[in-house]
Amino acid sequence: MHIHILGICGTFMGGLAILARELGMTVSGSDANVYPPMSDQLAAAGIDVREGYKPEHLEPAPDLVVMGNAMSRGNPAVEYVLNKGLPYVSGPQWLNEHVLQGKWVLAVSGTHGKTTTSSLLAWILEHADMAPGFLIGGVPDNFGETARLGKTPFFVIEADEYDTAFFDKRSKFVHYMPRTLIINNLEFDHADIFDDLAAIQKQFHHLVRTVPEQGLILSPQEKAIEHVFNMGCWTPRQTLGADGDWQATLLKNDGSEFEVRHGEATGRVVWDMLGQHNVSNALAAIAAAHHVGVTLEHACEALSVFAGVKRRLELKGEINNIRVYDDFAHHPTAIATTIAGLRAKVGNRRLIAVLEPRSNTMKMGVHQETLAQSLIQADRVLLLQDADLKWSLKQVTETLGDHVSVFDSVDAIVKTISNEAQSGDEILVMSNGGFGGIHQRILEAIA
Which segments constitute the Mur ligase central domain (predicted)? Predict the structure, then answer.
């Protein structure tokens, strides 16, 4: 079977391509931007990737076209598929039909922490010799790839609430049929497709409806999540957090050492990850792994050798005692927790936060009232005012004062850092995009 994937270089669709190749299918694809790391993974898997959305990429006609959710009417390739009557399907539906049938799916959902928690869960199962399959929206360093079929019925998936396709406006996660479900947290996001938090909660209610009575749902006791359960829940639940069925107690303020308790059982984790948010992610992963038979002791042991996830507080380099990190944070809550985690680790070292507010929700100005507060623990803040941003970042400077500067180009940010950086600085770069290759440029500038 030959499938052609439109939008193949996104982490989700690229992961689908790798899974399809493992199934023995012939796979090709198109994307507007062919770039690493996904382009490297696809090339290594022998997948033909073509730049742009040209109709000729679909000649001769594949057996099936798999549509990424970034595809829309007016796209030349989409119009060609419709005009020619080629069979097509969304990525999540393809996954449901070709990969997830008969699997014990462990799904990780929520506004924040999905990629890290999914990576932690997959690694715990791997460390327990359970050889899981997985599809994750990032690259866990313990695996070096975003997706694989695995050798057992267990399959870990990052369950995103974003819509499925231009022809299917349900959230992607309704296609996944989880038996074990984590809901990490729930806030308003994706303002380009959801009107308010209630609209998101309705989609999470649809997800809850798909979990069997013999399954398990894990979540903290948060008001927004409880509202979802009040709409109807037919599955046993276990709670996460201070007064929950699963508890984590910090043994070090930076989150690098903590104790886990579940009933009479306790375990201790000493690892390289930072921050209270990652401790919460770990707790959810431990609880989900326990549902499929991994002991608390084995889970804690696995986390002690967890290598991290690319673009999640990833150290990109250290020059002249100046460290440069890359993080995917793009929502005020994620920004605040990432900065807080690094601050707890580095103490009084100067922390320089560099942010590109790039998500659709951020561009629309939904978070303009809360962004400043999320940056408050940084000693110096540099912001990129992109032309697509529909509001002025100057109001952040008005709130936080002179240590915040706004720039209209990556070049200007790099130049400022090269002039200001000094030994002992921690430079945290945050964006959900490539940010013009700024990480390497900063390292070169301070060398």
Answer: 108-289
